[in-house]
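Ticket #4471: structure export looks truncated?
Reporter: QA, pipeline team
Priority: medium

Steps to reproduce: submit the single chain below to the structure queue and open the exported record.
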Amino acid sequence: MKFARYPGSIRARLASLEGLTGLAGQAVPASLSERFGMFGLTVLRGVADVFYPPLCLICQHAPVGPRERICAGCRSTMRSVDPSHPLRREAEAKLTSGGTVDGFLPLFLFEKEGALQQALHLMKYSGMHSLGAMFGREMGARMASMPGYRAADCLVPVPLHSARRRERGYNQSERICSGIGEVTGKPILTGTLLRRRNTPSQTALKLHEREDNVKGAFRVPRGREKLLRGKSVILVDDVMTTGSTLLACADALRAAGARAILVATVAVADRTS
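Actual output as written to the record:
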């Protein structure tokens, strides 16, 4: 565990302070915020970092800064994908062939048991949502050199169903958007795309099952179409595997009047692996 080297009381406090990173106030435990206030919590975290410098969330050995979260050694094992990579080209063709999606930007190649998978699991299932903002900042920097993404109007996170969001406490795609917005200044349209049913996880499903699982699962609420009409939208998620979820989201956005839809993900995975 991330804080295993610390005494129990300190470990509990450090773990609770993880909630300070990301979208403001959403993950801060109520008992701490009531007791110390946001300013006091920030001071506490700063003091904790002085006496117990944060370690890399992956190897748990190398010290890191509060914004990096992953050391240079672990980061170097994450394989970037440029536009010529065969898997990226195949994934982009799948997304854009029907005319609903206009572009695809992945940062990394997803590899099982690798550092990136560990980071994504920590982000999604262990409350380390600050990793999402970290990946988002890198994504935002990459977008600066891509004219279509640079000119886009807004960011839309792939939504979780309300039941799953309550269980997890946050939506990792929103955290990624927060990092992108920090770099690009683009607004994040949360609540503009909703998941109408709590679909089973896509992880264990075959390709045709994934498509059926998410078909018609997303909608734009009445009255929110005006935020999308005529706009170029960046649709953000953590991983693309088959593209079924992203295409279902793009269909809903296009039906609501979005002019262009660009997809951005932290990783692209080999659908056959």
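Status: closed, not a bug. The export was complete when the record was re-opened. Leaving a note from the reviewer for reference: The radius of gyration is 19 Å.
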